[in-house]
UniProtKB/TrEMBL annotation:
GO terms for molecular function: L-isoleucine-2-oxoglutarate transaminase activity; L-leucine-2-oxoglutarate transaminase activity; L-valine-2-oxoglutarate transaminase activity. It catalyses: L-valine + 2-oxoglutarate = 3-methyl-2-oxobutanoate + L-glutamate; L-isoleucine + 2-oxoglutarate = (S)-3-methyl-2-oxopentanoate + L-glutamate; L-leucine + 2-oxoglutarate = 4-methyl-2-oxopentanoate + L-glutamate. Its EC number is 2.6.1.42. The modification N6-(pyridoxal phosphate)lysine is found at residue 254. Belongs to the class-IV pyridoxal-phosphate-dependent aminotransferase family. InterPro entries: Aminotrans_IV (IPR001544), Aminotrans_IV_CS (IPR018300), Aminotransferase-like (IPR036038), B_amino_transII (IPR005786), BCAT-like_C (IPR043132), BCAT-like_N (IPR043131), BCAT_family (IPR033939). Keywords: Amino-acid biosynthesis, Aminotransferase, Branched-chain amino acid biosynthesis, Pyridoxal phosphate, Transferase. The keyword Transferase applies. This is Branched-chain-amino-acid aminotransferase. Its cofactor is pyridoxal 5'-phosphate. One of its GO terms (cellular component) is chloroplast. One of its GO terms (biological process) is amino acid biosynthetic process.
Amino acid sequence: MEYGAATRGALLAAAPLAGARRSRLPLSPPPSPPSIQIQNRLYSMSSLPLKARGVRRCEASLASDYTKASEVADLDWENLGFGIVQTDYMYITKCGQDGNFSEGEMIPFGPIALNPSSGVLNYGQGLFEGLKAYRTTDDSILLFRPEENALRMRTGAERMCMPAPSVEQFVDAVKQTVLANKRWVPPTGKGSLYIRPLLMGSGAVLGLAPAPEYTFIIFVSPVGNYFKEGLAPINLIVEDKFHRATPGGTGSVKTIGNYASVLMAQKIAKEKGYSDVLYLDAVHKKYLEEVSSCNIFVVKGNVISTPAVKGTILPGITRKSIIDVALSKGFQVEERLVSVDELLEADEVFCTGTAVVVSPVGSITYQGKRVEYAGNKGVGVVSQQLYTSLTSLQMGQAEDWLGWTVQLS
């Protein structure tokens, strides 16, 4: 099965409204070297059992072992924050030097054994993904574009010299993990189940080299809003001293080191009362890149502009989805270099990401000057429209005409 075919077909069949246009404008200065070309090789399943590696398997099948998964967890769903909640099970599989991942297993959620000389601990050879599951009004569970996360992990794995699960194995593992932890999926409208796949170099190395063994894990946690403001304006500060990524680096892949490096600037910003940091490019220090863990969009009239993915910016799945939704609504979308000066004239600014979905920006401060949007008291019309359209689709409240959701029984 070719994942994404349904989506592409739907996009081709669905004619955007009059005036809708997507532009990829010429980049100046020149973009980074071409992105890595990924062949979607399907890794075969190894017969090497996890028990041989010291991993204990739950003693029952999905059909009978997860009886309590149909129960509802005893949580305060009305006050669910964005933090880790210990759930029941996690998925694990390993890959040796032959490049093949063993058949994955579901084990109780908890600590894992990791060699202190592992590649991930010593050299940061690791990737992660993030996606969500939603409970619908008829008690079904929906995943949102899991194959896109699988493909992005494979792209990142090649950049980091790591093997990766096939798209099929990744998606199947996500399904298994969600079903095993079904009781932790929040009621409709109360939040979502955040799904965290991890790929790491778990084998021991001393000299700088790819690890000889890799571990792929998926765990989940019920979450509420990422920002405490929820769907309310957040306040950003433009960072012109620290940088998130540089040309030729790893800014376009979801490697773990990209996120530890933003903590200092984020800490300083929050101490000053800001919600997060908006980064500029490291070369010219004038073009928008992204927020610590979100993509950025600038609205002016009917035109929505967002920084082009050119090697230093993560190709967000929510970003990609919002672009398609915006086009379907008749907006013109431009993927290009966006100057920090354009923030002064913008009608609206918003962020996108798996954790935040769409987060409207109420103000941006740059070199001591504060610019407010939507009066800093409400959500902009465009931000609200795109948020409502996307979340309605994610939660099964609107027809999935793009084929983006995967329903679990």
